[in-house]
Design goal:
The chain is α+β, with helices and mostly antiparallel strands. 32% of the residues lie in helices and 25% in strands. It has 3 helices and 5 strands. A 5-stranded antiparallel beta sheet has the order 1-2-3-4-5. Strand 1 and strand 2 form a beta hairpin.
Length: 122
């Protein structure tokens, strides 16, 4: 088991279930993405370019999206900036909070950046 998966499995409930569900969604939607352990949290990458990270923080799971500025403006009301300049995030306190369809749509938009040459595979 890699350190990113170990991080997910060692989280208390309900965070472990939320993280596992998000992991399935990301890996199903972005099968070419690599799950790495960076900055002591699970991070998904295309080559050397980060896509998103999964972090248990306070009383929620934070899904940080690095290149959120390249996403459609329709997601702006769902993405939290919290005074960050680059990363925006989705936050989940329960499995019921996750809108699978919306999450998958955002991941597909991120994948389309790869198709446009934004992410370079190394």
């Amino acid at each position: 088991m890699n350190p990113a998966e170990a991080y997910i499995l060692k989280q208390p409930e309900p965070y472990k279930s939320i993280l596992m569900h998000l992991q399935v969604l990301v890996e199903h939607t972005l099968p070419e993405a690599d799950l790495l352990y960076k900055w002591r949290i699970p991070c998904y990458y295309f080559g050397k370019r980060p896509i998103c990270y999964l972090n248990q923080s306070k009383d929620y799971i934070d899904v940080g999206i690095w290149h959120s500025a390249h996403l459609s403006k329709k997601w702006d009301s769902y993405l939290i900036t919290e005074k960050r300049k680059v990363v925006k995030s989705l936050r989940y306190k329960s499995l019921e909070d996750i809108n699978d369809e919306m999450f998958i749509s955002i991941m597909k938009e991120l994948e389309s950046l790869k198709d446009e040459g934004f992410y370079k595979r190394s």
